[in-house]
Amino acid sequence: MSVIETLLPPQPAPPEVVKPYTVQRLIGRIVLGVWLAAAVGVFMIVVDGWDPAKFEKYGPSFISGLGVTLLLVGCSVSLGALISLPLAFARMSKNKVLSWFAYAYVYFFRGTPLITQLFLVYYGLGSFRPELQSVGLWWFFRDAWNCALLTFTLNTAAYQAEILRGAIESVPRGQREGAAALGLPSQIAFFKVILPQAMIVALRPYGNEIILMIKGSAIVAIVTVFDLMGETRRAFSRTFDYQMYIWAAILYLIMVEILRNLWAWLEERLTRHLKR
Amino acid sequence: MSGIFAALFSAVSWLGSVIDPLCGPISIFRLFGSGTLLACSDAGWGDEIAYGFGITASLAICTLPVGLIFGFFIALAKQSEDKSLRLAANIYTTIFRGLPELLTLFIVYYGLQILAQRALASVGYDGQVEINAFIAGMFALGVVFSAYCSEVLLSAFKAIPHGQYEAGDALGLHRGKTMRLIIIPQLVRIALPGLGNLWMALLKDTALVSVIGLPDILRQTGIAARVSKQAFEFFGVACLLFLILAMVSSIVFAMLERWAKRSEVAR
């Protein structure tokens, strides 16, 4: 048996590891410096060109533009969700004609730019004025806002149908069989068993789709709807003041970041039972 | 020397006009569109629209390498050990993924114009400066594309096990050589579906450049629609052309994916 006879003398704390000044660090500092300079530059542009009269004149119109953007996105996303449900079912159905139609619809709306679709509806259908008047639909297509809402709804319905289809197909077959074994009618099995699980899978793509719609909604400014981008363009064309675009950029960034964080929180909250 | 370039340029443009799918000697508009509004002559709009088609395709093709290379370096910066570099890269993606593409385009177009004007004014030149719409569009779309591309490449980088880098070290390869011979081939295979989606998004975003005056598909068909008062037909043609571009690129990407996965087939 060994016995300790001498104690080690107390040692000083190990020296702090000095991180070497790497190239990465240098580049990082430089780029951060560039960002800082850009931020200061933007701030200086805003301070330099600050004009209370302009702010008073265009501030409220920016707020109303923001409201128009949010209203457009909110309406079209929720209406699109309604349309996307039958569309997703048509896409998954065994009926060849139905599934082919849904596939063609989705392919068209996902394969062409939103702005082209908007032009097709607003200018294209607008050229059928006599026919539309005789059907009594001219009041609808005369207004750019209605055309934008229609286009956005149809467009987002196509994207949401794909999201929904992917999510529903990702639910394992056993879930449906389990519901059938319990004697649940297929409708109840869908709404109480399949859809809740599919929605968790679909949550993140839905968030991305809403963000894409907020960003995509800027193009309605081109067909004279005065959303946030439209108000910005109007203010810019009257004042030739570059800071109008900076204000719009800040507002859009705030919107997207709020939504992104909200969605991250929502996902964290809704999937907490799945954490191991 | 300039004579050689001129000859080369004319040879290339002659070749382009021969194999032009829309308005060449054997082409869609010539076979089906003669006598209609889509004829390839002064009577129809076929040649203008074919020109716009070329502009759209070349804008997307020119933007792709810029965005890919830039996105690759941003993805590298995002997984660096250094905090400041990561922060700088994250600021970049947050800004350019959060802004609408249209707004980015306007900011780049007018911002570059103002910057160039100020820079020239400080040298002593006072004149109106016009930024080329193609360059501005390429810049704006490239910036947006690189922001998204860095996210795709970052997740692909994370999917490559660390042992691959260690194997490169064990073989005594230089870090750049490890990247080139070991990492990038796997990276391409993993990232290709995501990059395909980004390419489709890029193709669709090119339509926005018509707003700052570049004569792409949408602008040319828009002019034709305004002059001929047949808006539905012309914008329908624009939609069809974009659909064709989407179809062609999905075929190309399917081929690319098969090529990238060729090592997995034999097993």
Task: Describe the protein in words.
The complex is a heterodimer of chains A (276) and B (267). Chain A has 276 residues and is mainly alpha-helical. Among the domains of chain A are: 73-222, MetI-like (MetI-like fold, Orthogonal Bundle), CATH 1.10.3720; 226-264, no CATH class. In chain A, 77% of the residues lie in helices and 0% in strands. Chain A has helices at 23-48, 52-92, 96-111, 114-124, 129-135, 138-142, 144-170, 173-181, 186-216, 228-239, 243-270. Chain A is flat and about 110 Å long. Chain A starts with 22 loop residues before the first helix and ends in a 6-residue tail after the last helix. Chain B has 267 residues and is mainly α. Chain B folds into 2 domains: 60-213, Orthogonal Bundle (MetI-like fold); 215-259. Chain B has 11 helices and no strands. Chain B has helices at 2-19, 28-32, 46-78, 83-98, 101-123, 133-159, 162-170, 175-205, 217-228, 231-260, 262-265. In chain B, helix 5 crosses helix 6. The longest helix of chain B has 33 residues, at 46-78. The radius of gyration of chain B is 22 Å and the shape is globular. The N and C termini of chain B lie far apart (53 Å). The chains are: A mainly alpha (276), B mainly alpha (267).
Quick recap of the structure?
Chain A has 276 residues and is an all-alpha fold. In chain A, 77% of the residues lie in helices and 0% in strands. Among the domains of chain A are: 73-222, Orthogonal Bundle (MetI-like fold), CATH 1.10.3720.10; 226-264, no CATH class.
Descriptors for this entry?
heterodimer, A: 276 residues, mainly alpha, MetI-like fold, 77% helix, flat, B: 267 residues, 2 domains, 78% helix, globular
CATH topology of the domain at 73-222 in chain A: MetI-like fold
CATH architectural arrangement of the domain at 73-222 in chain A: Orthogonal Bundle
Determine the oligomeric state from the structure. Answer: heterodimer
Corresponding CATH superfamily of the domain at 73-222 in chain A: MetI-like
Which runs of chain A of at least 5 residues are low in confidence (pLDDT < 50)? Answer: none
Q: Provide the residue-averaged pLDDT of chain B.
A: 85
- Approximate strand percentage of chain A: under 5%
**CATH architecture call of the largest domain in chain B:** Orthogonal Bundle
Q: If helices are DSSP runs of H or I spanning 4 or more residues, what is the number of helices of chain A?
A: 11
CATH class group of the domain at 73-222 in chain A:
Mainly Alpha
User: Helix count of chain B, per DSSP?
Assistant: 11
Structural class of chain A: mainly alpha
Annotation, overall tally of beta strands of chain A: 0
Order of helices and strands of chain A: HHHHHHHHHHH
Gross morphology of chain B:
globular
**Portion in strands of chain B:** under 5%
CATH class of the largest domain in chain B: Mainly Alpha
By DSSP, the count of extended strands of chain B is: 0
Please identify which CATH superfamily of the largest domain in chain B we are dealing with.
MetI-like
